Amino acid sequence: MSLGVQRAAASAPRRDVPSVARSGLVDRTQIGAFPLLADLPSAELDALAETMTEVGVDAGVQVVTLDDYGTAVYFIEQGEADVRTDGGEETQALGPGDSFGEIALLLTGLRTATVVARTPMRLLSLSGHDFERIRARVPELERSLREVGLERARQ
User: Fold this and answer.
1) Which residues share a beta bridge with 83?
2) Under CATH, which number does the domain 28-154 receive?
3) Which of 1, 54, 124, 137 shows a CA-CA span of 20 to 30 A to 77?
4) Are 149 and 106 in contact (CB under 8 A)?
5) Are the CB atoms for 73 and 54 separated by under 8 Å?
6) What residues does each domain of the chain span?
7) pLDDT given at position 5
8) Residues contacting residue 11 through CB under 8 Å, at least 6 positions apart
9) For residues 65 and 116, what is the distance between their CA atoms, to the nearest angstrom?
């Protein structure tokens, strides 16, 4: 599923909320392709496969926005994105295999940066609601996401 209507004429990123459409179960091999998730126990991969969704995002869309309430963590399957700070300057580029959104989901509740799709993207998304539902079954995932979030928060 793709987001947005026609590309806005302005060069500023569009602030669209990614629409999530379940496209059936996400395959375990898709999840296992992410370095952060590859070594999770089989039971945790199964739990993720049952709850994650694929999200399509058009180039130029703000996937998450600084200081917004975080409702999901995202894993980039395809495409590239820019991470922008409070002043709008790009601080990091993200691509396939990267993730974002864990700080808000696990640590602060609020987004600590804006992420803008540089190219069309395909993401795997784990909503906060679904994470809470499976949290007891995915302790290694929670530990891994928390470690990444704490490391990023220190930067």
Assistant:
1) 92, 115
2) 2.60.120.10
3) 137
4) yes
5) no
6) 28-154
7) 28
8) none
9) 9
